[in-house]
Amino acid sequence: PICRLFRFEGFLIQRALSRSTDRIAASLITLAVVFAAVVGLKHMTMSLKVQSQEWVEEALTDRIFVGSRLLTPEEYGAFGTVNGVREVVPMSHNTSIPFLIRGIPADALRYGPLSGSPELMRKFRRPRTLMMSSQLSFTLGLASGDSVSLPSAQGNQNYEIMMVTDDYGYFLDDRSYAVMSLENMMTFARIDTSSARQFTLVLDPGSNQARIKNDLYATAGQYGLYITTGDEKSRFTLRGIDQDFVIFELILAITALLAG
């Protein structure tokens, strides 16, 4: 009926529709692809959040991370006098060959999986034994029970991976590392153990981290402390995932609008 009233306009509309079949089909295909991408992105976001929450539970829960000037054991022992601090773990005794390896005194690991197992503690103290973080394990394609070759003054030596865990060895930024007892590291690399400037404080379960942070500044603020609580790092980590994926979602939304 419209074509009868507006013959010229109707003719133009019919011709435009007949010539735009391919464009409409392409738009529909693009919309379908965008929809599939959105579904896939949502699934990937949820999966990454679950993995991050599991990592947060192991590496950040009931932890406070302290940076300072170089401190002797007598000086950083003051951190342990603050109510709620369970263990003071120095994190400065490292080597980066062939990847980041932290040497930690076995006596400082009286928490996590080793705390209730004398057998695991003996294994950790045993020569040529180490633990790996989940990220380093994934990167190298290695698992608990495998061996990794490390260079030393005596040539390459195989070290057994006794456990893959994020309970030990994390300090703020680097999530890809290995951990061995400080005693074993001293036979593997030349390091100065007379002082340290990075520390992980393990807290009593459920401790008020903001209160402990303030108490640390009051007790040892003269050492030039820089303190990050596990709660602060957890919020930053999980919020960062949401912010990263918002950008991808905006790109997909713009693509969908253009296709439509």
Distance between the termini: 28 Å
The Cα radius of gyration reads 28 Å
- The class by helix and strand makeup works out as alpha+beta
Query: Quick check: average pLDDT?
Result: 85
Give the strand order, joined by hyphens, for the main sheet.
3-4-8-5-7-6
The count of strands amounts to: 10
User: Strand share of the residues?
Assistant: 15-25%
The number of helices is: 9
Q: Which oligomeric form is depicted? A: single chain
Helix content: 40-55%
Describe the overall structure.
This protein has 260 residues and is an alpha+beta fold. It has 9 helices and 10 strands. The protein has a 6-stranded mixed sheet with strand order 3-4-8-5-7-6. A hairpin with a 5-residue loop joins strand 3 (94-95) and strand 4. The longest helix has 39 residues, at 21-59. The protein is elongated. It starts with a helix and ends with a helix. The mean pLDDT is 85.
Quickly describe the structure.
With about 260 residues, the chain is of the alpha+beta class. It is built from nine helices and ten strands.
Pick out its properties.
20% strand, 260 residues, single chain, alpha+beta, four-stranded antiparallel β-sheet
Task: Give the SSE map.
Layout (H helix, E strand, L loop, with lengths): L1 H4 L1 H13 L1 H39 L3 E9 L1 H4 L8 E6 L3 E2 L5 E4 L13 H8 L3 E4 L1 H7 L6 E4 L6 E8 L13 E4 H7 L7 E8 L5 H12 L5 E4 H30 L1
Parallel strand pairs: 4-8, 5-7
Antiparallel strand pairs: 1-9, 1-10, 2-9, 3-4, 5-8, 6-7
